[in-house]
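Chain A, query sequence.
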Amino acid sequence: MRRILVLLAAMATSIAFGVRAADAVPAMTFPPVLGATGIGVKDLDASARFYADVLGMRVLRRFELGYLNEVVLGFPDDNGAHLVLMNWPGDATRHYDGNDVKLVFYVHDPAQVIELIRRHGGKIDREAKPIEALNGAIVGLGRDPDNYVIELLAR
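Chain A, predicted structure.
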C-alpha cells in the first residue's frame, strides 16, 4: 500500500510541478530485483530434467519463437530468481560449453545435492566441505550437462 501511495504522490508531483515521475520517486522505492538468468543449453528437455531432479525446480513456461526456444524454470514456492534455458535450433555457430558461467544456489545440504549431480552424470569440481575464508561456510561445486558451474552454499 505504501508503494502505491508513494507512486501516486510522485505522479501528482509530476503533474503539478512538471517534474518527471521517475525523478520524483526516491531511487530505493522500487529496488531492482534479479528476475532470471538465462543460459544456452544443447538439449532443453535434458537440462530441464537435470534442474528438476537435482534442485527441485519446475517448468513454469516454454517459448518456441522459431529462432530461439526457451524453458523457464522456478522453484515451487516461487522463491528466488528464475532460470531460463535457451536453445537456438539449427544455429551451428552456438557452442554450449559453460562459458565461464557460475550459477549459485543456496541449499539445505550441499553434500546431498553434490551426490545428486554425480548420479545425474554431472562432473564434481569440489566436494561439499567448509571453506575457511568464508567463515567455514559449506560449499560444493558441480557441473550441469552443458558444463555450467553449479555452486552450492549451505543456508
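Residues 1-28 form one domain. Helices lie at 2-17, 21-24, 44-55, 110-119.
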